[in-house]
Fold:
Amino acid sequence: MTKRTLCAPADIPNHGTRAFPAFTRAHAGLFAIRQNTRVMIYVNACPHLGVPLDWAPGSFLASDGSRIVCATHGAEFEIETGLCQRGPCKGDALESVPYTLEAGMIAVSSAAGL
Ligand code: FES
Structure:
């Protein structure tokens, strides 16, 4: 399976997010969150209606940075797991995307939301 290189971990702001738009309309795109050395990647689609989560391009977090918040109806998701803790899709979760580090760059499967 083909892999796509997203960026280096340091290209994601610490305690911040970065969006990776889809290359085709068939996919939702991805977003990444970095917390020091830990990076989580999710498909940019809310489990409630399947729409993108970002408030503005690349902005996914509550103002205090403690959780992911969907811009459409305000569902709140745990950063580490993607689990919805509050809102219309409580108990559902964002689709987590596995990745590997290849020569210091984050690489995902080409089928993973891109
Ligand atoms: S579309 Fe995300 S909470 Fe409704």
